[in-house]
Amino acid sequence: MTRSCLLLLVHCILFIFTSSTTTAIATITIPLSPSITKHPSSDPYEILNTLAISSISRAHHLKTKTITKTHKNNSSSASSLLVKTPLSSHSYGDYTVSLSFGTPPQTIPFIFDTGSSLVWFPCTSRYLCSGCFFTIVDPTEIPTFIPKLSSTSKLIDCKNPKCSWITGPEVDFHCQNTQTCPPYIIRYGSGSTAGILLSEALHFPHKTVPDFLVGCSIASNRQPAGIAGFGRSSESLPAQMGLKKFSYCLLSRRFDDTPVSSNLILDTGSGTGDTKTQGVSYTPFHKNPAGSNAAFGEYYYVSLRKITVGNKHVKIPYKYLVPGSDGNGGTIVDSGSTITFLERPIFEAVTQEFIKQMGNYSRAADVEELTGLKPCFNISGQKSMSVPELTLQFKGGAKMVLPHQNYFEFIFDKDVICLMVITDNGVGPLLSVGPAIILGNFQQQNFYVEFDLANKRFGFAKQKCK
Ligand SMILES: *[C@@H]1O[C@H](CO)[C@@H](O)[C@H](O)[C@H]1NC(C)=O
Ligand SMILES: *[C@@H]1O[C@H](CO)[C@@H](O)[C@H](O)[C@H]1NC(C)=O
Ligand SMILES: *[C@@H]1O[C@H](CO)[C@@H](O)[C@H](O)[C@H]1NC(C)=O
Ligand SMILES: *[C@@H]1O[C@H](CO)[C@@H](O)[C@H](O)[C@H]1NC(C)=O
């Protein structure tokens, strides 16, 4: 402890001495890899269908997320249970990072998620994951953190201000029968996790973050891995570490389940300049106008202004592009969603434009049925193929011209391509609450992506990640 403090002091002194001549940038680089769990099926239609369904259920969850707490009344003895509902994560279609917690360090894989904020790991030797059959990983072999083996594990006390990050302002109410911060329950689109909050040391190769707030989950449903929340609330990893920015380049999904990875870079630098990274286009981040306490406060909103298919500007009603005073509408960037979600009217406009411009290819209705994606085209026998360009234009002029592979999935040996965007599944009323557009990780492949927190802006540049 004293030793690392001393080291830190040395770093500070070094920084003071060097900062006048060079801009010292302190960065931490950690590998980022696609999926830790294999899809149990090798049928390409089934895999795509799983991706589509999980992306829809996640979108559903992100959109309807509300923070539900136990009712505040006097007789409720179950008052020490908190219910918070961030978003869903799925074992397939996500990217993972490994983080080391505890003394001595225990290294555990986490799903990298910019759509939620708490960092939690499967915890104790008794960790129970029900409904984890859908992964190839044997649920009893899920890597877990063992607090008993760490000398720095501490329970979070009710008096610790960090407790209220999870309980909200009603901390006194939730703490009336307990001294330690009450357990959390997080519900997901499909699944949930429950546990207690710990203070732990978080280790990186050249830096240790003491007293990091982390969730120790004892039981989960359909959650084979922990989640590293990179959202905008106080408990997120970037907020706790005071990061200036973080950036990554998502490897193409064709590297799924192979041992390659790209990097997630955490910038802990103390420079406050607003230097832009060369070659990177930026657009500002916005807060949801419904306020930072609202459920949508932890999302990274960007201002999408225009979608073009080929040369055609697709008409999108303004109410979807900009969040209203009710908090609905707008675009968020989410690393934990796979396929980009478009509110149904936007989805219809975009897909109709693709169908119109690709009239020379025959539709593969059977494949659309099997995968849940639309439109799919049969390109069998085509000598060459041309697909319209898909471009997202943001406030400030930043243009994201997507490579074909980022919106058309080619199903090998079937000669079929499918457009990789989704909407709600069409049953029931329009789900027009929450973000209207969720920019998923499929669309971010082979882009350098920067979350410049200090300057509140989102940056991107096309880049081969491998
Ligand atoms: C607590 O409050 C909720 C909501 O007001 C109510 O439904 C419930 O019956 C109350 N419980 C008790 C035990 O009073
Ligand atoms: C709880 O009880 C106190 C006193 O017994 C009362 O003043 C208060 O209004 C009650 N709160 C709720 C939410 O019922
Ligand atoms: C469709 O086919 C027609 C006639 O073969 C051709 O002139 C046209 O360029 C094609 N359009 C596209 C988008 O490939
Ligand atoms: C695509 O079209 C070819 C030729 O018309 C046909 O043989 C094949 O079965 C079709 N593939 C699918 C997946 O529909």
From TrEMBL:
<keyword id="KW-0645">Protease</keyword>
<feature type="signal peptide">
    <location>
        <begin position="1"/>
        <end position="20"/>
    </location>
</feature>
<dbReference type="GO" id="GO:0006508">
    <property type="term" value="P:proteolysis"/>
</dbReference>
<keyword id="KW-0064">Aspartyl protease</keyword>
<dbReference type="Pfam" id="PF14541">
    <property type="entry name" value="TAXi_C"/>
</dbReference>
<keyword id="KW-0325">Glycoprotein</keyword>
<dbReference type="GO" id="GO:0005576">
    <property type="term" value="C:extracellular region"/>
</dbReference>
<dbReference type="Pfam" id="PF14543">
    <property type="entry name" value="TAXi_N"/>
</dbReference>
<dbReference type="InterPro" id="IPR033121">
    <property type="entry name" value="PEPTIDASE_A1"/>
</dbReference>
<comment type="similarity">
    <text>Belongs to the peptidase A1 family.</text>
</comment>
<dbReference type="InterPro" id="IPR032861">
    <property type="entry name" value="TAXi_N"/>
</dbReference>
<feature type="active site">
    <location>
        <position position="334"/>
    </location>
</feature>
<feature type="active site">
    <location>
        <position position="113"/>
    </location>
</feature>
<keyword id="KW-0378">Hydrolase</keyword>
<dbReference type="InterPro" id="IPR001969">
    <property type="entry name" value="Aspartic_peptidase_AS"/>
</dbReference>
<dbReference type="InterPro" id="IPR001461">
    <property type="entry name" value="Aspartic_peptidase_A1"/>
</dbReference>
<dbReference type="GO" id="GO:0004190">
    <property type="term" value="F:aspartic-type endopeptidase activity"/>
</dbReference>
<feature type="domain" description="Peptidase A1">
    <location>
        <begin position="95"/>
        <end position="461"/>
    </location>
</feature>
<dbReference type="InterPro" id="IPR034161">
    <property type="entry name" value="Pepsin-like_plant"/>
</dbReference>
<keyword id="KW-0732">Signal</keyword>
<dbReference type="InterPro" id="IPR051708">
    <property type="entry name" value="Plant_Aspart_Prot_A1"/>
</dbReference>
<dbReference type="InterPro" id="IPR021109">
    <property type="entry name" value="Peptidase_aspartic_dom_sf"/>
</dbReference>
<dbReference type="InterPro" id="IPR032799">
    <property type="entry name" value="TAXi_C"/>
</dbReference>
<protein>
    <recommendedName>
        <fullName>Peptidase A1 domain-containing protein</fullName>
    </recommendedName>
</protein>
